[in-house]
């Protein structure tokens, strides 16, 4: 018999209690964790999969799957887009589990990890628990770090790496049958409301990542089918005291919150949606920002101050290549910009290689008459740096496409 279902908020409370107990007693724990950028898709997908996996009829061991957000608790404040989603799901930011909840004392061999929205556990968690990954659901480029499908399935887990606008859509695709089975014979007032809360949690990242299903480049069949299924759950649920379901309004509320970064420092903006990779002994870091470069320059007052802070961020993270990707809307037109900064000789070599291939693939044109560009070639006399900033006209290429291009350039050095 599977575990008896509870609401999302009760599930997260149980997860915290179970983790605290395991840390004290040394019991075995199974985690579901998103990627290091800890964006809306990562956070919601981890909670969604952990909930569905815990209460799935397939969970014969009655194990509790604990969802973990890959960031310190204080950094949840850098995710304003969580607000509208959590409110609809009847959750608070404080309900989420973060790295602060994973204190020292939990031995790697006492854990099992399922990764969502990535397929290679990196960073501090990867160093300690990377060998304990036994499943994944992801929509990024395959990195071949998660064990083969037969290994994952032998432990009762999944291994899914497929193209999709949102990872949450793949989670729904995997768990839809289980969810339907869970609901069979349970359609009382409480469980119908719980389904609705879970549906809101899943819809948030799907709508954001596919631009409300309007992005031709990102939206896949998996996204459309997931939204149809989730909306059917919302429309079946009681609406007493609540406004009728309006997809456009929900999308707009999340988008508005996500773009509200005016009160953040530039350093916080750079680390809000940040990913880092190591390739061939070199470090690459890419910050995704939901406002354009002119906004960032105005935030700090000058080009010089902007470059000072960005360079300091690159040095703090010990990067060989530091990149910033921006998205914005101007007169109803979606725009992208890309800044890449090669720090040191190897970083410069990488940028040169990337420039040759990337200019055509990404549709790169010099930004602002080159005011942010830099080319310092020491010719053996010391430090070398190179920096290029472009408008990116092939806007269908997000970090999912740009990061592999940069990593390929690094691998050739």
From TrEMBL:
Gene Ontology, cellular component aspect: cytoplasm
InterPro entries on file: DDH_dom (IPR001667), DHH_sf (IPR038763), DHHA2 (IPR004097), DHHA2_dom_sf (IPR038222)
Alphabetized PANTHER family for the sequence: BNIP - RELATED, EG:152A3.5 PROTEIN (FBGN0003116_PN PROTEIN)
SUPFAM superfamilies: DHH phosphoesterases
Pfam family, one: DHH
Organism expressing this protein natively: Monilinia vaccinii-corymbosi
Cofactor(s) essential for the protein: Mn(2+)
Domain of life: Eukaryota
Residue span, DHHA2 domain: 251-410
Keywords: Hydrolase, Manganese, Metal-binding
Gene Ontology MF terms: exopolyphosphatase activity; metal ion binding
Protein name: DHHA2 domain-containing protein
